[in-house]
User: Fold this.
Amino acid sequence: RQEIAALDAECLAMQVDVRSRSAVEACVQQTIERFGTVDIMVNNAGTGQFVAFAMMEDEEYDRIMDVNLRGTFHFCRAVLPTMMDNDYGKIVNVTSVMGEIAAQGQSIYNASKGAAKLLTQGIAVDVTGYNINVNAVAPGMVVTNLTERMFADEETQSYFMERIPKKRIGLPEDLAPAIMFLCSDDASYIHGTTLVVDGGMLCTR
Assistant:
């Protein structure tokens, strides 16, 4: 918030449970009341769990699917009426390379991110005729608050480094330019696409 204020820009910060339709709709409504509209939506909430499929509990399945898929669904549905009224909008859903390939112990995470990719494509088709772009960004291995403990383990880090041609783990700063590009008018003819930002990891699969 302080960094945004230093740019002489206005910021509205809210904590929202993306699993709740009413909470998401209230967030979007407050945003519209404050700023007049919603031009850009980036769905970046996510969660996961390393667990063998046979050991997966219903509660964990629900948590992963509710955050990764239902949350994306809620926000896209909430902002689209305003974007359609304005005939303008940019939606970027953050998926994952794990929505492109399967990985041991991540079957439900794989499913949630793969579904989010197809949801992105489906929405892109549904807004045909509107000046609205709907795309996804699929990160590879990136250090975040959720993954920093995992990558702090040298053996784990070495395992992934061997499979990433760029020979380093990604950073949030690697994703930001891709998202900003898709949110810009320079990407006005890019639609229903998933932009992979993974240091070349998928090339090795």
